[in-house]
Specification:
Blueprint (H helix, E strand, L loop, with lengths): L1 H10 L7 H16 L4 H17 L3 H11 L2 H8 L8 H25 L3 H8 L2 H10 L5 E3 L4 H8 L11 H4 L1 H11 L5 H7 L4 E5 L3 H9 L2 E6 L3 E6 L5 H7 L2
Parallel strand pairs: 1-2
Antiparallel strand pairs: 2-4, 3-4
Length: 246
């Protein structure tokens, strides 16, 4: 919608845009179409330029004329913008409405947020990351692609993720290797061994989790209905496996 508003505002403005008004918004729009993380920056850039274009007239003048023809301006002046001062009754009503809204929100808040933790864990490995921190697991991590951003937030700088949402930074070759491992395609084992993975944070239903657990090279030490943590079946994790192993 902002892209359409940008082009519409500059199409009908009384003065055509200069080079600066075209190059910066266009550059940010392209970045927004390339990656979703650039969309907020593109939106923040487009809005001021749209406001500048609208301030130059044309569209705003036409809308003003249209509202006058339809009688909207007279309606506004009569019922909304007439300048009438609020009386005691209106003030009291406003405060009562505000109080009712505040009481309603206070009553609704606990039930609305009752399942927030479970909802968050359904999307992100909140509890799995907490387990990694509390149990003192360290080493080379392998993680699901869509977990990377949260795990950076939760574990950095103590632990480094295998991959995160910045696919363009990792490059096509590395992303293909990740895809081969996570979907256990032909030759995945050699690629997996190349990175000397010590533990894994992944979704509970991922094929990789099922296969590694079956092979016995890794042991399941944390599991909820959404996510799992597996550690290599090695002496360095013996205490963790003895305490949490499944």
């Amino acid at each position: 919608m902002l892209v359409l508003a940008f082009f519409a505002s500059y199409t009908y403005t009384t003065r055509k845009p200069d080079f600066t008004e075209l190059i910066f918004p266009t550059f940010l729009m392209i970045l927004g179409f390339i990656s979703i993380r650039h969309i907020p920056l593109a939106a923040l850039t487009l809005i001021p330029f749209i406001a500048i274009a609208l301030s130059r007239g044309s569209i705003t003048d036409e809308l003003s004329a249209l509202s006058h023809c339809m009688g909207l301006s007279r309606f506004y002046k009569r019922w909304i913008g007439g300048g009438k001062q609020l009386g005691k009754g209106e003030y009291l009503l406003n405060w009562l409405m505000l109080l009712a809204i505040a009481i309603g929100l206070s009553a609704y808040y606990p039930s609305y947020h009752a399942n927030d933790e479970d909802k968050a864990n359904a999307t992100l490995p909140v509890k799995a990351a907490e387990f990694v921190v509390n149990s003192g697991i360290t080493g080379n991590m392998f993680n699901s692609y869509h977990f990377g951003g949260y795990l950076i937030y939760r574990l950095y700088p103590t632990q480094r993720v295998f991959i995160d949402g910045r696919a363009d930074m990792y490059g096509d070759d590395f992303f293909k290797e990740y895809a081969k491992i996570i979907s256990v395609r032909s030759g995945w084992g050699g690629t997996f061994d190349k990175y000397q993975i010590d533990y894994i944070i992944t979704g509970r239903d991922e094929p990789l989790r099922q296969l590694l657990q079956t092979c016995g090279d890794f042991r399941l030490v944390y599991d909820d209905k959404y996510n799992s943590v597996l550690v290599r079946n090695a002496p360095r994790y013996a205490d963790i496996i003895a305490k949490y192993g499944r």
